[in-house]
Amino acid sequence: MSDDVVAVTGASGRIGRRVADRLGAAGVPVRLLGRDPARLPEVPGAVKAPPAAYGDGEAMRAALDGADTLFLVSAHESPDRVAEHRTAVDAAVAAGVGRIVYLSFQGAGPDATFTFARDHWHTEQYVRAHEGLAFTFLRDNWYLAGIPAMTGPDGVIRGPAGNGRVAAVAHEDIADVAAVVLLARDGRHDGAAYDVTGGEAFTLAEAAEEMSRATGRTIRYLPETKEEAYASRAGYGAERWRLDGWVSSYEAVARGELAAVSDTVERVAGHEPMTLRAYLSAHPRDYAHLVGR
């Protein structure tokens, strides 16, 4: 196995942690990055970098010094997210990183309905603009974990998704794809942008049926208009930009922008992606808030 060092951001999160585990198991030197090293997981053979936030160029450069490849998990949504990504990319290049594998989003584009997907497009363009920097973009769909998370305690999934379909994917499958791409040293994935989806596209009404089966109670989908969606989320006290992101994610589903099913998981990772039914069976804690009500 190559001695090339892979730096993994978001290593305390659901994807970064899984990717780090897979790389560590493969014997790859791994560098874990995070704002708080105390929150980083214990991965055999991995080194915890000094504290580094995406927006702190100096800290990011120090944390990435000596790394060859960077797995860049997108930052938490914020009005400054693209600027933070650009700072992180610049720091990586300055530190000598030669390849970036960036976790993007399906349908990333300047005019994407889902407002946060626009951030991913701008980030991708910034990475592309660095001459000589190898890159791969992994454009994931909604997370399967989001289906139980968006189900309210009253057993209702609300949103303006209409009858649109979404090809949601499991964190495990994304991590499997990312690990294979990061482990490849022959350039076969350089310059590629892969949609990473589940193996099926379902409506939220169909998702509610699966949730009903898993929880033993009636879960239903309540289609909302755009205005109703903003009104039903007003009580969260979220800023307008965040509400725009929440609501527009459902609108993207309604417009068919997240319905395309890719073969990336099977082709790259070598196995079929997890279905919603299989995911719910494997992760009962995700819908524990709905059981027994």
Mean pLDDT: 96
How would you describe the shape?
Answer: globular
Task: Give the C-alpha Rg.
Answer: 19 Å
| Extended strand count | 9
User: What is the CATH topology descriptor of the domain at 6-140 and 171-196?
Assistant: Rossmann fold
Unreliable sequence segments: none
The CATH architecture of the domain at 6-140 and 171-196 is 3-Layer(aba) Sandwich
Could you give the distance between the termini?
A: 51 Å
Largest sheet, in brief, is:
7 strands, parallel
Q: Helical amount among residues, as a percent range?
A: 25-40%
- How are helices and strands ordered from N to C? EHEEHEHEHEHEHEHEHHHH
Describe the structure.
This is Quinone oxidoreductase 2. Its EC number is 1.6.5.2. It comes from Streptomyces rubrolavendulae. It is an enzyme of class 1 (oxidoreductase). InterPro entries: Ergot_Alk_Oxidoreductase, NAD(P)-bd_dom, NAD(P)-bd_dom_sf. It is a single chain. By secondary structure, the chain is α/β, with parallel strands linked by helices. It has a domain of 161 residues: Rossmann fold (3-Layer(aba) Sandwich), CATH 3.40.50.720. It is 38% helix and 14% strand. The strands form 2 sheets. Strands 3-2-1-4-5-6-8 form a 7-stranded parallel β-sheet, sandwiched between helices. A two-stranded parallel ribbon has the order 7-9. The chain is globular, with a radius of gyration of 19 Å. 46% of the residues are buried. The model has no long low-confidence stretch (mean pLDDT 96).
